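Comment thread on ticket #2218

A.B. wrote:
> Attaching the input chain for the structure job we discussed in standup.
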Amino acid sequence: MLLAIDAGNTNTVFAVIDSDDLRCQWRTATSASRTADEYAVWLTQLMDLEHIQSTEVVEAIISTVVPQALFDLRKLCRKYFECEPLVVGDGVDLGINILLERSAEVGADRLVNAVAAGAQYGGPLIAIDFGTATTFDVVNSNGDYCGGVIAPGVNLSLEALHMAAAKLPHIAVERPPHVVGDGTLEAMQSGVYWGYISLIEGLVSRIRKEFSATDASEMKVVATGGLAPLFAGGTDVIENVDSDLTIRGLKLLHDRNRQRQA
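C.D. wrote:
> Ran it. Output below, let me know if you need it in another format.
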């Protein structure tokens, strides 16, 4: 079995994949101070609940945008699963071209999403990830990564409103019944929800126009991340919601690189 780890700025996802079957996945808050031993206690107990033995995991792959967390994630794989993990960015063959001068600046999660989206849906496309940041990543008709857009994440924006304005409460992200709120709570929900819908629609429209000269067919849009279903329900721009996009991308990269090493 394969252990796929996606360490983001806010959450880290652990997934166990058996051949092509995603057996289980779990999410924990990302913490650079968490040790390999702490990860192991938490993870192996959850695996045991699903009747998965640690000895069944024989390979691993890690994608992280938190460099400080990498040491202990690597140690987790080496010490408790007795395998050397592939790490996205450490000479891993992505199988796609990155059409950027400073390709090293692109986050591993964005590249993994581009690989998975291109393989699953075919380019040209825009992959939107609702994470700590809301990212828009562009794949052309050849499957090449062309860059993208990074905007503040939804929860980050809510936290900023709450912290910077004394009278504004901390609220949950919900779709309000009306655009014009009849109270502070409703007004905040409307500003965040419909504001992000407008952000999505506006950026997708501008990206499509910018790439119309090189990609004649209309770009598809796929969304991932925990809030993707909520925002997909408010706009026709998002055509596909794929909650397992990043994990599937890690599986594709693992298979590709293990084949090259064989």
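A.B. wrote:
> Thanks. Noting for the ticket: Residues 184-210 form the longest helix (27 residues).
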